User: Fold these one by one.
Assistant:
Number 1:
Amino acid sequence: MKNLAVAAWLAAVVLGGGSAASAAIIPITFTSPGIDGSFSGTFGDRGITSSTFTDTFTFNLPTGFSSTVVTSTLQSLATDVNFTSVTLNGTAFNIGAAGQNEFRFLDNLPVTGGTQTLVLTGTSGGNGSYAGVLAFAPAIVPEPAAWALMVLGFGALGAAARRRRAIAAA
């Protein structure tokens, strides 16, 4: 379902693209966090007429935030945009497909709160466009009570094993 929504958004960006005069970077727009704390944001650029381009997106994650980029995808659909470099905080995206329809992705990158920087460089054959999605999920860190309960459980298992040995020896 998520892929269908992304595809629809990408189609709207590509088909809704205008002339060179309407070239516009689409800033990252984040959704409200879900019940589990995950959220995503969409971004892009359309109407790229220059032969080379560099787009830089900066955004802030809350202080104390610890997360993993679950999925980041970037697509150029039939617009002859060729990415030469795509990075998030200096980490390069993996190449899923190259050519006329390019696809880049990045999975499981740990991030913390503060300023994040997404940089895209590439070339365009004229009136190019691209769109992408960044998805974040909060890092799961056990609560102190969970650690205490786990240690208590291991202690109980050890005591039970020791008692069994003492009974068997008697």
Number 2:
Amino acid sequence: MNHLNENGLDPRHVSIIDSLPVYNSKKEVLVVGCGNCKKDSVLKKMGYDVISTDYITEAKKYNFQKKMLSAGITDITVHNANILDLSTFPKQQYESVICAEVLEHLIDYRVALKNLLSLTERRLIVTVPWQYSFNDPAPPPKGHCNFWNDNGSANFKNINEYRSLCAPYTTSIQKIRTKPKDVQMGQYSYLIIVDKQQKWNI
């Protein structure tokens, strides 16, 4: 059975989209590290104002442009932006920000996260792999240099650091699957949702 839905989205994409705010939403989304733009295209069809960005120097290595064309995605313009340099983004704040499967590649991921929070007006949605799930053995930034698990054991980083890094905003963390095969392979992603309208200390 094909795990992709009618829009070509896998369960991880759907979980990300389901995490966007609904009540009184402007339906504005910045996507940082848009990759093949599948979710971006679907969000646009859902009526969202989507600003898709990637660091083109690195994105070229994955040939995302070819993948977009083969998937029939022609309605998305990708802006060249570097999450470590806020001046490269079209504007400085967006209602919601999505950054999926990016921070595991960045040595300065804490700086990147701080910048993501700065770009976010309302809701920040981040995914990173659990332990060595989906690991690319190539050197970063193509491969992974950060690895998290539930409690920081066995030399992994503790995923709960995101709660303190995103304080004082309320942060929820859960594990999600990408496809049924992940069950056999023992692979997960963490879905991290930061709500800037909710503060834990008030």
